[in-house]
């Protein structure tokens, strides 16, 4: 049994258009590192140390809530210290809560020799998402655990497949400098309509099919057409009124695809050598400024899955 373990999990962009709670892509833009350690003495079951703004109350942190469940299930008696080094800015639609949860579960699995599978890691990590957003949505955690582009094909039990990506695109994240406040994803989920018209469902099925076939075949047009959503992105537009204009500019300058990253406010742009990236940046900057804020651009690539190492 290792005494101290470190796990690293990447940021992610969920939904990818019409794949609400199903599709997600991990990226190397940011990562969270979680150190897990068994303590001999102390109070409570879990002790959190972090230099970031995320809650240190174990019942409110997406990293500790799943670890508490593991300790219950496996009847672990000791105290676990989780040191959370946040590289992924929270509340920006970049899967920050999910990555912490995945890294914590993977680290504790190694620390306690539990040998959890990636699906098991997802099963526990969604409890962290539930604690912060009210819903155990699995898409971000699946991408941070497995890496690449993932599809959650079953929820109970969890089954996740990695989607083959046969088109050579790069990623740009447009990150508004906005303070989204506590419970951003929870509020965004409350805007999703409980019922939708069949024509919208058919439209979304078309988008999703185009994106899947486009990624697997390496067909640029299908990817571009497929990254779209008539239901969830539309319903949440009041949260990101700048998005339709940024989408229009991004497509005008020939991005490979564009969508809202998770529940926003960030925007995911896929690009290649045919894309006029600088024009998209200039246009997006103007749009954001028109709405009274600045934005940052991070260019990156698809990320791998969670990595774990024993330290002593
Ligand atoms: N370990 C954690 N990492 C990130 N956010 C956390 C963590 N624990 C709790 N939170 C809270 O979760 C919220 C961010 O999660 P969420 O709204 O789902 O956005 P995102 O996952 O896109 O960053 C914030 O209110 C943050 O304080
Ligand atoms: N499918 C979820 C994804 C939320 O991602 P986040 O990174 O914004 O927390 C949703 O759209 O609600």
UniProtKB/TrEMBL annotation:
GO CC, alphabetical: cytoplasm
All residue ranges annotated as the GHMP kinase C-terminal domain in the record: 212-283
GO-annotated molecular function: ATP binding; homoserine kinase activity
Domain of life (superkingdom): Archaea
Occurrences of domain GHMP kinase N-terminal (ranges): 68-148
UniProt GO BP: threonine biosynthetic process
Keywords linked to the UniProt accession: Amino-acid biosynthesis, ATP-binding, Cytoplasm, Kinase, Nucleotide-binding, Threonine biosynthesis, Transferase
UniProt-listed SUPFAM superfamilies: GHMP Kinase, C-terminal domain, Ribosomal protein S5 domain 2-like
Main EC class the enzyme belongs to: transferase
Entry-linked HAMAP family: Homoser_kinase
Family: Belongs to the GHMP kinase family. Homoserine kinase subfamily.
Record-given protein name: Homoserine kinase
Native species: Metallosphaera cuprina (strain Ar-4)
Lineage, broadest ranks: Archaea, Thermoproteota, Thermoprotei, Sulfolobales, Sulfolobaceae
């Amino acid at each position: 049994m290792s005494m101290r373990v470190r796990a690293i999990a990447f940021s992610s962009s969920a939904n990818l258009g019409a794949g609400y709670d199903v599709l997600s892509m991990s990226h190397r833009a940011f990562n969270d590192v979680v150190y897990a350690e068994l303590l001999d003495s102390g109070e409570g079951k879990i002790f959190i140390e972090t230099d970031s703004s995320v809650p240190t109350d174990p019942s409110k942190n997406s990293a500790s809530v799943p670890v508490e469940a593991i300790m219950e299930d496996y009847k672990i008696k000791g105290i676990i210290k989780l040191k959370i080094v946040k590289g992924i800015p929270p509340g920006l639609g970049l899967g920050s809560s999910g990555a912490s949860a995945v890294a914590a579960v993977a680290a504790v699995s190694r620390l306690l020799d539990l040998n959890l599978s990636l699906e098991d890691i997802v099963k526990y990590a969604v409890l962290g998402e539930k604690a912060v957003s009210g819903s155990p949505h699995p898409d971000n955690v699946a991408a941070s655990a497995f890496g690449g582009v993932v599809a959650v094909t079953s929820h109970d039990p969890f089954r996740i497949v990695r989607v083959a990506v046969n088109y050579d695109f790069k990623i740009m994240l447009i990150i508004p400098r906005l303070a989204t406040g506590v419970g951003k994803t929870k509020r965004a989920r409350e805007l999703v309509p409980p019922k939708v018209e069949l024509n919208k469902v058919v439209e979304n099925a078309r988008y999703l099919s185009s994106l899947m076939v486009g990624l697997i075949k390496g067909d640029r047009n299908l990817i571009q057409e497929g990254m779209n959503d008539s239901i969830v992105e539309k319903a949440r537009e009041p949260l990101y009124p700048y998005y339709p204009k940024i989408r229009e500019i991004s497509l005008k300058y020939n991005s490979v695809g564009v969508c809202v990253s998770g529940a926003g406010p960030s925007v995911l742009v896929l690009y290649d050598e045919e894309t006029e990236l600088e024009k998209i940046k200039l246009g997006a900057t103007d749009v954001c400024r028109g709405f009274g804020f600045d934005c940052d651009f991070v260019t990156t690539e698809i990320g791998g899955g969670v990595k774990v190492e024993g330290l002593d």
